[in-house]
Amino acid sequence: MGCATTQDVYGTVAKTRFGTALALGDVNGDGYADVLVGAPKDDDTVSRLVDSGSVTVYSGDGLSMIGTPFYGATAKAYAGTAVAADDVDGDGNADIVIGAPNDDENSTNKDTGSVKVLQHRPHTFDGKIRHEKIAVW
Amino acid sequence: MIQQAGGKLVVAGYGRIGSKDDFALVRYNDDGSLDVSFDGDGKVTTDISGNSDQASSVIQQADGKLVVSGNALEDVALVRYNEDGSLDTGFGSAGKVTTAIGAGNAYGRSVIQRVDGRLMVAGSSTNGSNWDFTLVCYESGQPDTDNDGVADDSDNCPLVSNLNQLDWDSDGAGDKCDDPVPTPDDVEGDLSKEKVGSSVAFAGDFNGDGYGDYAIGAPDYDIPAAPPAKAIKDVGKVEVISGKNGVVLFTSKGVIAKDGLGFAVTGGRDINNDGFDDVVIGAPLADTPAAPPAKAIKDTGFGACGLRLCWCGLRYHAGCLRYGC
């Protein structure tokens, strides 16, 4: 006993509530369970959405970030309040389910919330095989 | 008997040829006439043992070949035919296989082809004193290029390993060789402030279709009502969504205002060992009920009643066992 080791992963922006939700799943098909971290108060600075929230995926093989974070679609959507990862489409790779409980259906129907499924998808097509183990969504 | 594409019927049995029985196959057109494209006259007989050979069952493989089971004298027998009624000489010995089971007679009454391509024959055999149920399994004898355990002639994606053989659009081409399984549409809440997505969880294969499903919680969901009645506020709701096509497989709602059902949800385990994954839902603001004049204990949620869980996802349960703890 006493063999446990720890490795910390910090959010990069203050007050994003990074770590509110966590999930494990092999999303890139490399055999390692990857770590998904929700940060519901994160901002999408590119789209200028305050508190859109985000989910970031870290490789189980070294905890490097895979791709870029997934952000909520509207300001104050709080995406990343909940997150899950497992194989939804039966291709053997984990897909990602993200909850954004304060997302707006439209400008008048506020805080309906939303759930988005991100399926593991290939980015190449050879005419026959369309499911490949490539970490692209 | 089987029915083929176009309505043709193939009947398996046996016919007396001279002083003995032989396997017999007859194919009819959908108007009842003999199909002369089947061995010239619509009829095929096959001698196996030189003695009494009687067919009992026929199946058609994915490649169109016909497999017939029965008995050849005292042995279980299989014969495979090409689509035109000729013997498939690549199967067994000149299209025929016989298998001795015990000391006495054996009958292969029924045959199926498993998903991995193997042929399974069910029947009976005697050990000399009594009859026993008998199963015989045959290797497919077919190549398995992708080594996934499913022979090429039965594999819906023969060059890519896919033991699960999933085919979401039922077009005959497995998902691994076909258009990708489409991403389910985003689930949007219907009502303002119901907060869909406050909790999400993988629900395992909730409906047993081979695809993973997921559960989503909306703890601030209101049960609407037409005025002058008032909506029941914040009862909460959980839905289980199909990973195959995005349809709602299961819905559970709270009953009393501020139950907050769906604040937490988890799944992906078979709780009651019925072969289906279940979902467990938390309603942390639910009240523990009491018969008047006693008053309900408010907001017990988890804890006051052991684990205050709603076992809503148990398959075949009509709904949430709200006070079942």
Explain what you see:
The complex is a heterodimer of chains A (137) and B (325). Chain A is an all-beta fold and 137 residues long. Helix content of chain A is 0%, strand content 28%. Chain A is built from no helices and 7 strands. Chain A has strands at residues 21-25, 34-39, 54-58, 65-71, 82-86, 95-100, 114-118. In chain A, the strands form 2 sheets. Chain A has a 4-stranded antiparallel β-sheet with strand order 1-2-3-4, with no helix packed on it. In chain A, a hairpin with an 8-residue loop joins β5 (82-86) and β6. The termini of chain A are far apart. Chain B has 325 residues and is an all-beta fold. Chain B has a 4-stranded antiparallel β-sheet, with no helix packed on it. Residues 302-325 of chain B have low confidence and may be disordered. At the A-B interface, β5, β6 and β7 of A face β12, β13 and β14 of B.
Describe the structure using short key phrases:
heterodimer, A: 137 residues, mainly beta, 4-stranded antiparallel beta sheet, 3-stranded antiparallel beta sheet, 0% helix, 28% strand, disordered C terminus, B: 325 residues, elongated
Task: Give the topology, please.
The complex is a heterodimer of chains A (137) and B (325).
Chain A: E1 21-25, E2 34-39, E3 54-58, E4 65-71, E5 82-86, E6 95-100, E7 114-118
Antiparallel strand pairs in A: 1-2, 2-3, 3-4, 5-6, 6-7
Chain B: E1 2-3, E2 9-17, E3 20-28, E4 43-46, E5 53-60, E6 66-72, E7 75-81, E8 96-99, E9 106-113, E10 119-126, E11 131-138, E12 187-188, E13 199-204, E14 213-218, E15 237-241, E16 248-253, E17 264-269, E18 278-282, E19 309-310
Antiparallel strand pairs in B: 1-2, 2-3, 3-4, 5-6, 6-7, 7-8, 9-10, 10-11, 13-14, 14-15, 15-16, 17-18, 18-19
Spatial sequence of strands, sheet with the most strands of chain B: 1-2-3-4
User: How many strand segments of chain A?
Assistant: 7
Could you name the ranges of chain A where pLDDT drops below 50 across 5 or more consecutive residues? 122-137
Helix content of chain B: under 10%
Q: What is the straight-line distance between the termini of chain B?
A: 53 Å
Biggest sheet descriptor of chain B: 4 strands, antiparallel
Taking the alpha carbons of the first and last residues of chain A, their distance comes to 40 Å
Q: What percentage of the residues of chain A does DSSP assign to strands (E)?
A: 25-35%
| H and E string of chain A | EEEEEEE
Q: Name the average pLDDT of chain B.
A: 84
Average pLDDT score of chain A:
80
Structural category of chain B is: mainly beta
Q: In DSSP terms, counting alpha (H) and pi (I) runs of 4 or more, how many helices of chain A?
A: 0
Overall 3D form of chain A: globular
How would you sum up the global shape of chain B? elongated
Instruction: Please summarize the sheet with the most strands of chain A.
Output: 4 strands, antiparallel
Secondary structure: number of strands of chain B? 19
Proportion of residues in helical segments of chain A: under 10%
Q: Which oligomeric state applies? A: heterodimer
